[in-house]
Design brief:
Order of helices and strands: EHEHHEHHEHEEHEEEHEEHEHH
Bound molecules: NADP nicotinamide-adenine-dinucleotide phosphate
Structural class: alpha/beta
Largest sheet: 6 strands, parallel
Distance between the termini: 41 Å
Strand order of the largest sheet: 2-1-3-4-5-10
Shape: globular
Strand content: 15-25%
Number of helices: 11
Amino acid sequence: MSIVITGVTGLLGSSLLNHAADFGYDAIQLTRDDIANMKSPNDLAIHLTSYNVKVLIHCAANTNVEFCEDNKVQCYKDNVALTEKLALVCKIMQIKFVFISSTGVYGKYQDTPYIDYDDVNPTTIHHKSKVIAESVVSKLVSDYLIIRTGWLFGGSWDMSKNFVANRIKEAYCSEGYIKSDASQVGNPTFVDDLSSNIFNLIEKKYSGMFNCVNTGRASRFDYVTEIIKLSGLNVSVLPVDGTSFNRKAKVSHNESAINLKLDYFGINMMPCWKKSLAQYIESIRSEYE
Ligand SMILES: NC(=O)c1ccc[n+]([C@@H]2O[C@H](COP(=O)([O-])OP(=O)(O)OC[C@H]3O[C@@H](n4cnc5c(N)ncnc54)[C@H](OP(=O)(O)O)[C@@H]3O)[C@@H](O)[C@H]2O)c1
């Protein structure tokens, strides 16, 4: 059985691509050019009919939250219109659609972790686009999974969005200390854990919306402190207040969540973030030592 994946040059898409075969799936990449060149959903559906496709996992997104805040039209093209186009492809082909959303959609109305049934009240253009895209998916496609995740790490050392690698590089070039936001909390989440849980949900034929983050929450400061500690670098991490970064996008101070539904259905495969972070840093150690 084949699975189509978008966003394969990104953190999550590359992990799904690398691990699809472990779960018995043939992975077909749908590239940025494929999507741009085939304007209509019908053309894309025709392109994919030669494969035995049963699922499309949509990881491609404009993930630059700061850029989105200033460029609403481009953000909505990348995150809503593109999702709608692919949802229509799935509708035409009558296949499952997996859409990757964010725990940032919940907003900032509580300090405790959000559960899957909490209201959404996004505070940025990027997260608003995710909420609209979720709604489009749930209305257009009969068999869908919406996965709300957060603070992804993993991928190859040289990927520009590789948060862990970037902090290690920053520490290497520092004068003995780096700064990190102590006021924002979330769930560092390893893309390989997320990929496994997504494949499991597909295999077990689940549909609907699920929070899916690694277990345990952390401030950015806790997270970066753990990265530097596990890396073995002799660099201090200084806690600072988020306001000192002067961001345009008013990202919630609390993007943390718990996987209530995955737990309840007995399908929560997401380990503690510290355990997965240690595993990941071990896998990239040769890049910097
Ligand atoms: N990273 C996080 O912390 C985080 C947190 C919560 C949710 N998420 C969600 O998880 C998903 C995967 O995120 P990620 O971190 O893996 O993303 P990423 O590393 O930033 O990669 C984004 C991918 O999307 C592609 N892309 C962007 N705009 C596109 C467009 N208009 N047409 C076609 N392809 C396009 C990029 O292709 P190019 O290489 O060609 O640019 C790249 O392959 C996204 O939906 C994201 O919103 C991420």
